[in-house]
Design brief:
It is a single chain. The chain is mainly beta and 459 residues long. It has five helices and 25 strands. The longest helix has 11 residues. The structure holds copper (II) ion.
Length: 459
């Protein structure tokens, strides 16, 4: 919920257009603050042209007020605590209480006035990624404007020339500020509501972090070796599912402000790129896909018809990106006797993790977990462990969901006889351990090694 920390609430903010005159025009609208990382219901417009609002995974849309014919928003850049999933909180920088910041929604042709207050310990700016606007509103510190020093408020004013999907982020000490989570999505709805309308419109932005297990702060100088792959600074199982009514037309808009591309894969449906940060793709130029690559510093929105009921996995297809911390720098020990190796490794590095001898599936990895981190793969479904993390969630397509109902409908009830199952009459013997042993005598005790019992906590 929005906190009322001295601020106007949604209802009070939206559609208020009473202010006019020099004194009032100089006032700055209150800045709503969000204190939760759960998906907030869509924010329907109560003034101006109508549109179907988006829903931000684990996020919210920023309320505004009308001031004459200007739509006014107020972003506050500030340190925040973001929960990545149950069991892990991270000190980030963000906007209005969360990282990423709230989604800004407006309509093509709107005049927007966006106040930005800097409550960070260093200067910042806001760049409106993909927007066609006057040069002096582009938010590049030093190049197109002075940096916003701590404690100051700047105002950006521009007209939204085109509809589509955009982002905002600092252009000021970028490496640090984006690595600390400063970013958000900016959706501009078409002025003509009959232009490619959809029933459900989801939004999220991708960011990555290197956060050592047991610590609370990202290492901002890292360029390639991240261990937290997030959608809206959340990781599975902390990422909201996408509840969808069977038959709905669905749009998913995805921004990428990480250091690498993400091939986003939808199960059970074909999807088509409908929009990028450059604009709408003509329908004649679209083609069916099941995986859409989202390049660095770019947006891909895809449309689909949700005509296949079920719990459909929806994830980045880079397998390391559906893992949480501690999944890296682990040696491949498939086929190696773990008993001897765990002893040897445990002696040298008591907290080290040893890959299971048959793989890394749930139950094969054992080690004590430090505070404030997450198992590398986790989550469970109605049939057992899901063994995922990071950039993974589920499209839950169900008959008869209410129009604005985004609550989790629970696990899918599979029609009888439609689930893959064990065949009782055919039995294949499991590989004997002798077949997978390395060609050395692993039974011989290793010199100087003692048993090192862990506390048995499973990953
Ligand atoms: Cu990825």
């Amino acid at each position: 919920m929005l906190s009322r920390r001295g601020f106007l609430g949604t209802a009070a903010l939206v559609g208020v257009s009473t202010v006019s005159g020099r004194a009032q025009a100089a006032t700055i609208p209150e800045a709503p603050i969000m204190d939760k990382a759960t998906m907030q219901p869509p924010l329907h417009p109560t003034s101006g042209p109508d549109y179907r609002p988006v829903v931000t995974l684990n996020g919210w849309s920023l309320p505004w007020r009308m001031n004459g014919d200007w739509k006014e928003f107020h972003l506050v850049a500030e340190p925040v605590v973001r929960e990545f999933a149950d069991g892990m909180k991270v000190n980030l920088w963000g906007y209005n209480g969360q990282a990423p910041g709230p989604t800004i929604e407006a309509v093509e042709g709107d005049k927007v006035r966006i106040f930005v207050t800097n409550k960070l310990p260093e200067h910042t700016t806001v760049h409106w990624h993909g927007m066609i606007l006057p040069n002096g509103m582009d938010g590049v510190g030093g190049l197109t404007q002075p940096h916003i020093t701590p404690g100051k408020t700047f105002v950006y004013e521009f007209v939204l020339k085109k509809s589509g999907t955009f982002m905002y982020h600092p252009h000021s000490d970028e490496m640090v500020q984006m690595a600390m989570g400063m970013m958000g999505m900016f959706v501009v709805h078409p002025r003509d509501p009959s232009f490619r309308p959809v029933d459900r419109d989801f939004v999220f932005i991708m960011s990555t972090y290197l956060i050592d297990p047991g610590t609370y702060l990202p290492k901002v100088n890292e360029m390639t070796d991240f261990n937290m792959w997030t959608w809206n600074s959340r990781v599975f199982p902390g990422i909201d599912p996408l509840p969808i009514r069977l038959g709905d037309k669905v749009r998913v808009r995805i921004g990428n402000l990480t250091m690498t591309n993400h091939p986003i894969h939808a199960h059970g449906h074909d999807i088509r790129v409908s929009c990028t940060d450059g604009g709408w793709i003509p329908e004649t130029a679209q083609w069916p896909e099941t995986t859409i690559d989202v390049p660095v510093g770019a947006i891909r929105a895809f449309d689909m018809v949700a005509d296949n009921p079920g719990d459909w996995a929806f994830h980045c297809h880079k397998s390391h990106h559906t893992m949480n911390a501690m999944g890296h720098d682990v040696r491949n020990l498939i086929g190696v006797s773990r008993k001897d190796l765990a002893k040897a490794v445990g002696k040298l590095a008591p907290d080290a993790m040893v890959m299971g001898e048959t793989g890394m599936a749930m139950g094969e990895m054992e080690m004590p977990a430090p505070d404030n981190t997450l198992p590398m793969m986790t989550g469970s479904g109605q049939f057992g462990p899901i063994e995922m993390g990071g950039m993974f969630t589920v499209m839950k397509i169900r008959e008869g969901l209410g129009r604005d109902d985004y609550s989790d409908p629970g696990p899918y009830k599979f029609p009888e006889g439609t689930v893959a199952h064990e065949v009782a009459s055919v039995s294949v013997p499991p590989p004997s351990s002798a077949q997978t042993k390395p060609p050395m005598d692993s039974k011989r005790p290793m010199k100087g090694m003692k048993h090192n019992h862990t506390d048995g906590r499973k990953m």
